[in-house]
């Protein structure tokens, strides 16, 4: 039986894919009518919204340069990582700042800046980032670095699948502007468990010496401590044709391919196949008609 802590983590991964994470993708307090469905091929984050964020969104935009400087400094000082700010979105008494790391380890994450709405003041001195989210993001990026060959095979598979012209992934602009889920490609994102002992020495080494080369980081990896339940790859594809329902044939084929593929990253895989459209306000595509292979019936690679 999977321990409760593992179930909680993987449920979190699915909740994020469904746009239900309270920070930063909780849109439970927004108007359902505002959450229009738009083409995934055109979605770049426009229309993304957080609860009670209309007023703070404008305040944040008026102080964009100040916020960007604070976010860059936060990640440099606390995580020895250079980032670029892609988007700032107002929320209740705050703004969420979406950032992307420069170079490797590559990841997307976010910080939060408190805002005094009455005084129209941005309190950049209190900017913060969720430690769990950032650590998860960095560990995912480190996994991708040290297992680049295995991930290349996985990436090549999805690129070839897209080249066949029946499915697509998210746009790079969507990842940049409203991603925030760690290591991401247009087709999947990575989740790691805080208890993942195998990657911890790599993470610690990187924080101590960000200039460590890939070979040194790979040597620090404790493969004997790897637990597949601590590492998840969350796959999400969309139908290319606007009128197409999620295809059972494609869904079955992708699952079969994943189960048969060798030399791809070890771990636990979930897979959602959606129709063509994405929720503008949440940036997510999973809906009632989506086909899914997820909790508790994951695809496992050992």
Enumerate how many helices there are, as a single number.
9
Strand content: 15-25%
Largest sheet, strands/sense/barrel: 6 strands, mixed
Number of strands: 12
Oligomer description: single chain
Query: Could you spell the SSE succession in H and E letters?
Result: HEHHEEEEHHEHEHHEHEEEE
Mean pLDDT: 89
Low-confidence segments: 1-23, 25-34
What distance lies between the first and last C-alpha atoms, to the nearest angstrom? 17 Å
Shape: flat
Question: Radius of gyration in whole Å, from Cα?
Answer: 19 Å
User: Structural class, from helix and strand content?
Assistant: alpha+beta
Kindly state the percentage of residues in helix.
25-40%
3D structure, described in words:
By secondary structure, the chain is α+β, with helices and mostly antiparallel strands. The protein is built from nine helices and twelve strands. It has helices spanning 4-17, 54-62, 64-79, 131-146, 148-163, 172-178, 200-208, 214-220, 248-260; strands at 37-39, 83-91, 94-101, 108-116, 121-122, 167-168, 188-192, 231-239, 267-274, 277-279, 291-293, 299-301. Strands 6, 7, 8, 9, 11 and 12 form a six-stranded mixed sheet that branches. A four-stranded antiparallel sheet has the order 2-3-4-5, sandwiched between helices. Strands 1-10 form a two-stranded antiparallel ribbon. Strand 4 and strand 5 (121-122) form a beta hairpin. The longest helix has 16 residues, at 64-79.
